Every structure is written in C-alpha cells, then in structure tokens.
C-alpha cells in the first residue's frame, strides 16, 4: 500500500519536454498544472518529497480538511508548492520564507494562482524566531492552519522553529506537518515539539522515510 500511494504521489510530478532557459518542474494537483521554478544552489528553492506528500494529502482529504475560506500560513514555503495547492483549494494563504527566497517564491505563487484562486495568496518574510510579534501580532493574526513541509533538517535554528510554531498557533489552530527523518536531530525535535503540542501521525510512508503529522496545542486535539 505504501508503494502504491507513493507511486501516485510521485506521479503528480512531470518535467518539461524541452529544456527551458529557467529550470522548472511541473506538478498536477487540485485540478491544475503547476509549474515551479527552482534554484539548485539553494535548499529552500527545490521541491522536496515532503511537499508532494502534504499536497497530495490536502487534495485527497479536502472534505475532512476543508480549506475554503480558511486562513493558512506556510512556514518555510520554499518554492511555494504547498501554498499554491492550498490556495487552489480555496484558502487565504500567507506563504513565508527567508528574504533571499522571496523573489522566486513570489514568482511561483503569482504564476500559478493569478485568476485561478478564490483568494490571492500573499508572500511575506518570516525568519524563524525574529520579530514575530511585530510582523505577526497575536492580537490580529489568527491562522486556522499552519502548513510545514521538511522544515526540520540539519540546521541550527530548531529552537527558533519551535518558538515560531508556538507564536503562530492559537488554541484552535491545526498544524499539518510533513517531515522526512534523516538524523537523530529530527527525533529530538519531535520530542521537544510534544512538550507544547499534541501530535498525531496521520500518514506514514516508510519507503520515503516521511511522516505526516497533525498537531494542536496540548489538550485541544481531543476536545
């Protein structure tokens, strides 16, 4: 079953027949052909398998996780694929990443959502742990969903990442988080994450070493 579903997920990706001036990959999600421009010199500008897993989940579980008119933020949006799919599924999306990635992110989001979405998504800078209250004040920012794909890997900002999750998450916010396990670092972060949030694995793909989680603030998930 794992191999069958993984085959379906990876089958959503296609490549150009002719090599173009700018490298791009294509994807089929939410009834649209999505073209993503990548930059191979930067981790954040490449589509990783965790993003495909999360997009596939959003599309195939759109009744249970209805995004229409929901307020969604994606952290570490990278190329913007997850944000684009969430937008095509009817959400009002804020796609965030580091300043050096915003140009490519904005290009992809605009190219794939203009005149196709109920709500035009916005792109905004978010450096984990920095100026969170200034840029995303708790009094006015309420997100129904936080999306994250492959944000935990070998980097020194795990404390800041946890702080960012905590700041953006209200009592009724649902976190949907796809993660590829590579090193012990990932396991330690999951343990720390669970001190603040109830965590439920909702999909698992052993052949990809990727798990998809749903999380909410402690004690809110069961309620």
TrEMBL record:
Native species: Leiothrix lutea (Red-billed leiothrix)
Pfam families, A to Z: Methyltransf_16 (PF10294)
Domain of life: Eukaryota
Name of this protein: MT21E methyltransferase
Gene Ontology BP term (one): methylation
PANTHER family: HEPATOCELLULAR CARCINOMA-ASSOCIATED ANTIGEN (PTHR14614), METHYLTRANSFERASE-LIKE PROTEIN 21E PSEUDOGENE-RELATED (PTHR14614:SF1)
Entry keyword Oxidoreductase: no
CDD domains given in the database record: AdoMet_MTases
Keywords: Methyltransferase, S-adenosyl-L-methionine, Transferase
GO molecular function terms noted in the UniProt entry: methyltransferase activity
Designated gene of the protein: Mettl21e
